[in-house]
Each structure stands twice: as C-alpha cells, then as structure tokens.
Design goal:
By secondary structure, the chain is of the alpha+beta class. 44% of the residues lie in helices and 14% in strands. The protein is built from ten helices and nine strands. The strands form two sheets. Strands 1, 2, 5, 6 and 7 form a five-stranded antiparallel sheet that branches. Strands 4-3-8-9 form a four-stranded antiparallel sheet. α3 (57-64) packs across α5 (98-112). It is globular.
Length: 213
C-alpha cells in the first residue's frame, strides 16, 4: 500500500501479483483484504488485553531510541498511544506493549528521514492492523512523500528500479533490535504490577504463536 500526502493513489499501481502496496488514507483496509497477509489470531492479543508484560515510558524510550518528550507528545496527539494501559491522570503510568515499542522505533526512523507526519499516521495504523507474521517479513520503503509496503525482495527491487524507494525499513530487523533491547531492560507484569527483569519478548511472542496455531 502507499501513503500520499493528499490521500490519493499515485506513482506505480498496485501490481496484480500482490505488491508492492502503496499505502494511502483508506488503503489499510484493502491491505487487510489481501489473503496472503490477513491478520492472524495472534494479532488480537497484541493490541491490548492479551499482553502479559508491558513497558513503562522510560523503558519504551530506551528501547526505541527516543526522548520522553517525544513519547509523551506522540501519545497525547494520538500518533502512538500505549495499548496496554493509557495514562488516566496524575499518578498513573502508561504501559506499552512490545508491538508499541516497535512502532515507536519505526516512527522515529520515518521522522528522521523527513516523511510527512500525515503519512506516518496512516502507516502506524497499517502496522497495528497487521499480524505478527506479516510484520516480521515486511519492508517499508519511502521517498519522503510516499510509503510503500513490500513483502518480498522482488517488490523492493521493483521500487528501486522505478525510483520511488529511497529509504527502507526492514520491520523484522527493527523487531529483533527491540527484542534485544527490551530483554536487557525492566518490564512490568500486567496482572500483578510486578517488575520483571531481563524478560525476553520473544518468549511471549513464541507462546502466543503456538496458541494461535
């Protein structure tokens, strides 16, 4: 799919062989209708309610490489909100899921390369709607004005040959970077509030995949 600043399609058309997909304002839904990338049952638990361990703001910042000011601003403006526990007022702590932290890191990279905020918002929603298996094999390409989803090396090459792809994010690589970072930081059990030291998100994700299977 493709994201454009005016919400319209353009550039290269979506190919009949399944991509690359240009993201735009209403395209996230059409991406979900692609049978090969339909959200799996594991995606349900990733958007809140199914998490066993969450991460407080400072931990999310450290793993995503952002400042707390950025984290707070993105949460207040709805760009990236915590799906485990939002802040309800003074004294409450936001709690972010593993997927939230992955999205935070991707948003940071997009902003650093000058991608328009409106396009990033649409891309964030698209990422939230996808299943775990989709994210691990997805590459997001951008020329600053447009974001494309690629799910195969051939699609990446197609964009590069056409001149649209200048900057790429391999979501699976970001995923593993965040896993490694969080495994060395403190998490918090959602049910008891107990601090968890050295929790590896990969263990929980593997268990969720097994349950879904």
């Amino acid at each position: 799919m493709r994201v454009t600043g005016d919400g319209t399609t353009g550039g290269i058309p979506a190919r009949s062989d399944g991509g690359p997909y240009p993201l735009h304002g209403s395209a996230a839904g059409s991406a979900r209708r692609q049978p090969e990338t339909a959200p799996t049952a594991s995606a349900v638990g990733a958007t809140g309610g199914g998490e066993q361990v969450g991460y407080r703001g400072p931990t999310a910042c450290a793993a995503a490489g952002i400042t707390y000011r950025q984290l707070d601003y993105w949460a207040r403006t709805g760009l990236v909100e915590p799906t485990v526990r939002p802040a309800y007022g003074s004294g409450t702590q936001r709690l972010y899921s593993f997927r939230d932290v992955v999205v935070l890191k991707i948003v940071k990279r997009f902003l650093d390369t000058g991608v328009a905020l409106q396009n990033i918002r649409t891309a964030v929603q698209h990422l939230r709607d996808r299943g775990f298996s989709d994210l691990e094999r997805m590459t997001l390409m951008s020329d600053g004005a447009t974001v494309y989803e690629c799910t195969s090396p051939d699609q990446v090459v197609s964009l590069l040959q056409g001149g649209q792809g200048i900057f790429g994010i391999a979501v699976g690589v970001v995923w593993r970077d965040v896993e490694n970072a969080l495994s060395q930081l403190h998490g918090e059990r959602v049910d008891t509030g107990e601090t968890v030291v050295g929790h590896n998100p990969a263990d929980e994700l593997a268990a969720r995949r097994n349950r879904a299977g």
